[in-house]
Write a structure and sequence with these properties.
2 copies of one chain form a homodimer. Chain A is built from 13 helices and 11 strands. By secondary structure, chain A is an alpha/beta fold. The first copy, chain A, has a 9-stranded mixed sheet, with helices on both faces. A two-stranded antiparallel sheet of chain A has the order 5-6. Chains A and B meet through helix 2, strand 3, helix 3, strand 8 and helix 8 of A and helix 2, strand 3, helix 3, strand 8 and helix 8 of B.
Chain lengths: 390, 390
C-alpha cells in the first residue's frame, strides 16, 4: 500500500538553537539560529530552499499564524511555506510534509523548521483551558500521564526506581550537551526525593518548559550527491498514526502504553525494512515528556516486551554505553520540550549521531537511528528512521 | 525543478455541507456532513482512507487542535491525520498535503477536509487581536483590502460600479445553489447603495461570516481506474507561494494586486502545461473575499492584463454564460467563507463542474478548471488546476 522511502529523501542539513529560557530572543531569532546552522551544515544558500514546512503548536506574539510567519523570519518569499500542527508531534509532522514533497518530486530542497516559545508568553497566549479537549476536563499533562504510569507500575509490579533510572540517564547525557536546557547530572536519590508533581512523577520525572527551535533540510538524492561538501544521511521510513484525542478515556484503553506509537513505528519499520527494531536500531531519540513515557516507548517501539521496558533503563541497556542508547542528547528531560521544535531536534540529533559528530555523547558505531514523538495524551505519534546508507 | 502533477493524482470524491449560520451543528457535525457526501461520491468506505489532512484556521470549543480532532469526528483511527494552516488558503493547503502524499506513493487514498465555525464562537475563541500580525496594528480585513482597492481604482480610473457587477454576478450564481449561505439575487443599485463597511466596500462587496465544511478525496491513478463506480477528475497542477505576512506594508508594494497569487498560479500553470490561462481554463473559482479581490485575481491569475480585469466583470465575460465563468458557485460572496473549508469547497465545485453535475449553474463544456485562494492580507496563495483527462 505504501511505497518504501528508501533512497528517495536525503537529510543534508540539521540545526538546533540553544534550548532553554530564551527571554532575550523572539520566535524569529530562535528560528534563524536553527536555520543558519542547518544551512551551513547543508552548504547551501537560502535561495536554494524551494519550500518550507513550519511546525508550531501555539502561536503567540503575532508569530506562528500561517507559514508567512516563517517566511518573514527567514526571508523565504516567493515559494510555498505552510504551517502544520499535530500536538507534540508537530515538529516531526513538518518533516513528513517536507519529505513527501521531495519524494513526490515537487521540490528539490525543502526545509522543515519547528519553533516554540513556552517560557515567555503573553497572558492571552496561555492555552485556553476551557476550550482544550483534554485540559478542559481538569487534566494536566502530568496528571494524564501519571494515570497511565500508576496503572503500569501496578500491573507490572515496579516502584518509582526504574523511573528514576531514566531521569539519571537523561540528565547524565544532557550534562554532555552544550545546547541542552538542563546540563546537570542527578542521582537516583535526588530523583526519588524530589517534590512530587503528580504521583508517581517527581520534579525530575518531568521535562522542563523550554524555548527552542530546530531545522532539518531534506533534498532529492541527485542533489545530495552533487553537494560534495554536505554529508547526507537518509530517510528510511516515516510513520504517523493516531487514536482518539482522548485515548485514555476509551473503554478499551489498557493504560499501559500508546497504540499510536505502536502503529506509527510499525509503518516506519515496514518502510525501512526493519523486522527486529531492538537489534536493528543503533540509537534512538524517544519522547520522554515524563520518565515513564520513555519506558512505555521502549515497549511500544518494539525494543522490549510490554511490561519489561523498565529493565532496559535499570540494566543500563539504553545508557550511552549500552547496547541500545536512547536519548543520548539528554532527551526532552534535559534538552527541553519546545513543542513544535522537539521532533526536529530529535531528527537533528540522530542525523549527527549517524555522522559521528556528537563528541562526548557520541554513540559508537551508530549506523541506523530512530526519532519518535507522541502527542497529546497519546493521541498521535510520529516515527522517523534514518540511516547512513540510502 | 518541480515534476509535473499530470496523471499522478485523481480526485474521486467531493463533499460540501450546507454553508450558513449552522448554530445547531458543531465542527464534527459539519465535518461529517461533508465527509459522508465525499465518501458516497467516491464509492468507498471510511476504512479505505489511508491518511487525512485537516484544514482549520481557528480552533475553538476544544475542536481543531491537532489531527485527532478530525480523527474523532470521522472515527479515522490508526492512520495519519495532521492539521495544516495557512491563513485563508488553509483548505487548499490540506489538499496539497494529501496530493503530495499520494504522488509520493505514501498512501493509496487520502482525505483533505476543511472546516470552520465562524458564526458561533465562544468569546475566548475570538481572534486574539493584540497578538495578530495584522489586526494588532488596527487593521481589519475589510480595511486592509479597501486600501488596495482604493489605490487600484485611483490608478486605473474606475468607480465602484465594476465592483457592484462582481457582487451582482456572484449573488445571481449563489441564488442557484442550494448549499450557498446567501441565496438571493441583488441589483447593481442595491450593491451601490448598501451601507459602507470600509470605503469603497459596501455590504454587498464583502463576503459573509459563515460556518461550513468541505471534503475532497484523492487517490492513485490505479485506484481511480479500479473504482468503476466513481467518476474521477485529475489534478493537473498545484502551486503555493507567499510573500511577507504584511505585503501591503513592504516599501515596494504597488497596492494593485497580489504577488503571491501570481507566483502560485505560475507554478500551477507550469505543472499543468498551461500557457494562456484566459483561454485554456474553462471555469474558475477564485477568492472573492471582497468584490475587488475578484477583479485583481483575474489579473494576477493571467485572465486579463493588470488594470483591465474589471472589464471582464462589466462585460459579462466571467458570468455563468460568459467565455470564462468565474465563481459559478456564488463564490465566497454568496457561498460564504468558513476559512479552512473554502479552498476545498472550491475544488469540490470545480470537480463537479468538470463532471457536468452542477445543474442550474453548470458551465457548458467545462473540461479544465482552476481554484484559487489568497490568504492573510495577500500574504499566501494556493492555486489548483483540475482537468477531465489525466
Amino acid at each position: 500500500m505504501s511505497d518504501s522511502m528508501r533512497g528517495r529523501v536525503a537529510v543534508i542539513g540539521a540545526g538546533v538553537c540553544k534550548f532553554g529560557e530564551r527571554v532575550e530572543a523572539d520566535y524569529s531569532d530562535l528560528a534563524l539560529e536553527a536555520f543558519d546552522e542547518a544551512l551551513t551544515d547543508a552548504t547551501i544558500e537560502p535561495e536554494q530552499i524551494d519550500a518550507a514546512w513550519l511546525g508550531t503548536y501555539t502561536p503567540a506574539y503575532g508569530w506562528g499564524v500561517s507559514g508567512a510567519s516563517l517566511a518573514d523570519a527567514l526571508r523565504l518569499y516567493g515559494r510555498p511555506v505552510v504551517r502544520v500542527e499535530n500536538y507534540c508531534a508537530t515538529g516531526m509532522e513538518a518533516l513528513r510534509g517536507a519529505a513527501y514533497a521531495v519524494a513526490a518530486g515537487q521540490c528539490d530542497i525543502a526545509l522543515a523548521l519547528g519553533v516554540e516559545k513556552l517560557k515567555d508568553r503573553p497572558a492571552r497566549g496561555l492555552p485556553r483551558v476551557g476550550q482544550h479537549p483534554v485540559l478542559a476536563y481538569g487534566n494536566s499533562a502530568p496528571g494524564l500521564f501519571a494515570l497511565a504510569a500508576n496503572r503500569y507500575m501496578h500491573t507490572f509490579g515496579i516502584d518509582r526506581t526504574p523511573l528514576a533510572h531514566v531521569a539519571v540517564k537523561n540528565h547524565a547525557n544532557g550534562a554532555r550537551n552544550a545546547k541542552a536546557h538542563m546540563q546537570r547530572e542527578i542521582t537516583i536519590e535526588q530523583a526519588l526525593n524530589a517534590p512530587i508533581i503528580a504521583e508517581p512523577f517527581g520534579l525530575f520525572d518531568c521535562c522542563p518548559v523550554t524555548d527552542g527551535a530546530a531545522a532539518v533540510i531534506v533534498c532529492r538524492p541527485e542533489i545530495a550527491r552533487e553537494l560534495s561538501s554536505a554529508e547526507p544521511v537518509w530517510i528510511h521510513g516515516i510513520g504517523s498514526s493516531g487514536t482518539s484525542a482522548r485515548p485514555q478515556w476509551e473503554p478499551g484503553y489498557d493504560y499501559v502504553g500508546f497504540r499510536a506509537t505502536r502503529q506509527a513505528s510499525l509503518r516506519a519499520y515496514e518502510q525501512a525494512g526493519i523486522n527486529d527494531p531492538g537489534n536493528e536500531i543503533d540509537v534512538a531519540e524517544v519522547h520522554d515528556c515524563f520518565t515513564w513515557t520513555e519506558i512505555t516507548n521502549y515497549e511500544d517501539l518494539g525494543f522490549a516486551e510490554k511490561g519489561s521496558g523498565w529493565k532496559l533503563a535499570v540494566d543500563g541497556v539504553t545508557a550511552l554505553d549500552g547496547d541500545l542508547p536512547v536519548n543520548p542528547s539528554g532527551g526532552l528531560k534535559s534538552f527541553g520540550h519546545p513543542i513544535g521544535a522537539s521532533g526536529l531536534r530529535m531528527v537533528a540529533e540522530i542525523t549527527n549521531q549517524l555522522r559521528g559528530r556528537c563528541g562526548d555523547r557520541q554513540v559508537a558505531g551508530a549506523r541506523r537511528g530512530l526519532a519518535h514523538n507522541v502527542g497529546g495524551p497519546g493521541a498521535v505519534s510520529c516515527v522517523t528512521i534514518l540511516g547512513q546508507e540510502p
